[in-house]
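#data-curation
PF: Archiving a pair of folding outputs for the training set. Convention for this channel: one message per protein, sequence first, structure tokens after, nothing in between. First:
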Amino acid sequence: MNNLVKSGIVEDYPPLLDKKGSYTAQFEHEVTVSTTTTTLGEPKGATMDNFMNMTKEAGHTPEIHGLIDLHAVYNDAMDGQLILAPINVQEPGKRILDSGTADGTWLRGVGSSLSARRRYFGSDIEAELFPARLDGITYFQQSFQEPWPAELKNSFDLVHVRGSLAGSSPKRPVKVIRHLASLPKPGGWIQLMEMNAFSPPSNGPAMTDFARMASEAWTGIGVGDFANANQLKPMLEEAGLQNVADRRVVVELGKKAKPELRAQSINGVSAPVKPISAVARDLGTSFSREQLDGLQGRVRAGGWS
């Protein structure tokens, strides 16, 4: 283990307790071997591919753990109301799609809160993220950048996407949203949820730097503020959707989080720091290599307000 730490493959953590006779709990939750290189004139889409490759090399385990932890924090911030669209979710037979579903965490959360029978569908470009246990969810591989199969169009009561629109690089997410707009049935809804990295609330130095680094990375891959919460409403209206509304949810992280959610919030938000930093390193930002290398550790250490 010491050799792995010295080689930079595994990160070491100080003991949680250090009094004589106490026990230490340690969980190594990220092993990354990166083959990412910087190429002069590299297409912006290829840079986002490097982000996907980095999570693949880690076996997707840190990504899944981070998504599960963030889901718990989001769910608490939204008072358990995962569906904000004004649909009668207790009515039987509703068809709900989660695009970019990963392991289906959001769908399972919705299913656990509802009693009526309905059909759940989860799509993702990475089929290896799908869980072995289906729990009544139909999973299928699909990139939201591509047109959806004809049999799925005009068939869903709710289409949900969370934290995925940066994957529309190198184009603006408008094309993705237009594809999504073909899926709801008449009277159906689309619900998008994205991080506000371009005008975040005031925070500690580490989280402020993370938000600034993410905004520079999204700008560098060509999606910029358009993959951000600030532009979701006009993009939905541009795609021809009606009754568009937005809601800002403040998610408490780190020291601000509830004690029982503090560790999950830190792991959830810090898990993507390293692959996003790799994107920023490829593109060139205002951050030095040393600053990018140390950012994840700073976020995990709790340099937040």
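PF: Second:
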Amino acid sequence: MKPDDMPENFTPQLDNINDPFTFNPNTFDFVQSRMVCGGINRNRWPSYLRDIKKVLKPGGWVQLVECHYMVNSDNGSITDNHAIKQWSNKYVSSIAGVKDPDAPLRLHNLLGSAGFTGIETNMIRLPLCPWGDAKQVQLGQNNKENVQQLLSTLAVFPFTRRLNMSINAVNDLVKRARVDAANSSLKPYFRV
């Protein structure tokens, strides 16, 4: 698994995100970590961020991008009766014992505890479909297909294994959640 046009300074390395880093200290000027919240074990976050700090060169930067999968509505129209809200509640409860679904909301504090300074955080509303101003419409359009896929991808294992739902029940919920996620009148979004 190596790109044909691999840059000279690129060396692929496979590691387990839940194990201590194998990189040497002071190796990188920049570390980007994104969308790993569903993979990092709940108790790994503090040491994961300390590992990132350790491998950064003095003055190095880290950028974290994480999604909080509890659906919200820009106009408050999503209720517990909506399938997308049921999906969110089930997803969060299905991983909460092993993962930390709320870590994206606490990144500032987690980074500070790991010794980072000059921390800036910015949570944005990532529309699940096109709605709002021109920028949100474009984000929603670009994100719509991703959301349609992730509703199933993220749900199957934890819903069947941790919530003991049948695959038919999961598929039914996902099908209904996809309709809600694509409904621009609900103005659905995840925080990123």
